[in-house]
Design goal:
With 350 residues, the protein is an alpha/beta fold. Helices cover 46% and strands 15% of the residues. The chain is built from 17 helices and 11 strands. α14 links the parallel β5 (203-208) and β6. α7 (103-109) crosses α12 (148-172), α12 (148-172) runs parallel beside α13 and α13 (190-198) packs parallel to α14 (216-223). The longest helix has 25 residues, at 148-172. The termini are far apart.
């Protein structure tokens, strides 16, 4: 059933490395099970036995012990006795009660809506087309729009995935030069709320679909910025709200193909004042592939291919998009590690 490398040395051989990678799907489902069962909520900040966890989760004790051992093997728990466990800092992120929880992100990216089209990755490589549409009968965002609960989970996952950037971005970019920022495709407003909190003189708009904006008002209220933030629903391929002097797009450009991205950026350029800027926040692929961040930038690139039809991009590819949209060649500044994002700033052309 498994390669003999599964019980091999701590530093895997070449065979062990391949085995570890192919078991990645199983690791993801192990995290999903932990989130679904509420394992980390039961363990909390203390030490718990597998029997205690099983009783509180309503699960079978021996099977629970096996799940906890697997989580320990993945570095999410630490085993301190024969059946006793504590959460590691990484594992604690699966606790849905924490303000820095990653539980929705885990649920979304291990859900069949994200994983089923990956079974047809080879087809997408052959054709250059997404597989999601063939599997689900609609494109990714249309499918979300038909399922409100799934759309809310996606919004929560995007919010959780944005928190680290939201903490870093206000200190990495001078938003104080501007008066009104328009967060294009900004979802529930997590990023905009962080920026407005850090810059009290700034006002902002989050612009997205009605489904994407569903939780934004609550986010602004919780952050205490509701008096300086507004929500506008619309289609950013058709138009973007005028009146901003900074147009912010985080994790939006990678969802779409080159033609769509150039059109979206062109809509921003059309309403940009002479002193205004477009700020794109995206991962930056190196010009030559290298082993970095566990291969995540490249897996994300394939996820864009399979599920939504977008792509991750290099410096040169971002420059080409900006120029095609009527913007200047961008100034690109990578955020310091551990962040994988870069700040890509473009001005009006000419």
């Amino acid at each position: 059933m498994a390669d003999d490398e599964t019980a091999g040395p701590r530093v895997p051989s070449e065979r062990g490395r391949v085995t570890q990678l192919v078991f990645g799907t199983m690791a993801a489902q192990t995290l999903r099970a932990a989130v679904e069962l509420g394992v980390m909520e039961r363990i909390g900040e203390g030490e718990r036995t597998a029997r205690d966890v099983a009783r509180e989760c309503g699960t079978q004790p021996v099977a629970t012990l096996r799940l906890l051992r697997a989580l320990a093997g993945l570095g999410l728990l630490a085993q301190s006795g024969p059946d006793t466990f504590t959460a590691t800092p990484a594992g604690a992120l699966l606790d849905g009660r924490r303000p820095d929880s990653y539980a929705s992100f885990v649920r979304m990216f291990s859900d069949p809506v994200m994983t089923r089209a990956w079974e047809r990755l080879a087809d997408s490589v052959r054709t250059g087309e997404t597989s999601f549409d063939a599997v689900f009968g609609a494109d990714f965002f249309a499918h979300l729009g038909r399922r409100p609960e799934l759309s809310a989970e996606f919004n929560a996952a995007m919010s959780q995935g944005t928190r680290a950037a939201a903490q870093a971005l206000p200190g990495a970019y001078d938003f104080g030069r501007f008066s009104r920022v328009v967060d294009v495709g900004g979802g529930d407003g997590t990023l905009l709320a962080a920026v407005l909190t850090a810059f009290p003189a700034l006002r902002g708009v989050v612009y997205d679909t009605a489904e994407g904006l569903a939780q934004a008002a609550g986010v602004f209220a919780d952050a205490g910025v509701a008096d300086r933030a507004e929500t506008v629903a619309g289609d950013f391929f058709v138009s973007v709200p005028s009146g901003g002097d900074l147009y912010l797009l985080k994790s939006v450009i990678h969802d779409w193909n080159d033609e769509q991205c150039a059109g979206l950026l062109r809509r921003c350029a059309e309403v940009l004042p002479a002193h205004g800027r477009v700020l794109i926040v995206e991962p930056l692929l190196p010009e030559r592939a290298e082993e970095a961040f566990g291969g995540l930038p490249y897996l994300s690139d394939l996820n864009m291919l399979v599920n939504v039809g977008g792509r991750e991009r290099t410096r040169g590819e971002f420059a080409d998009l900006c120029l095609a949209a009527g913007l200047s060649a961008p100034v690109i500044t990578p955020l310091p590690p551990p962040h994988s994002f870069a700040l890509i700033e473009a001005a009006p052309a000419g």
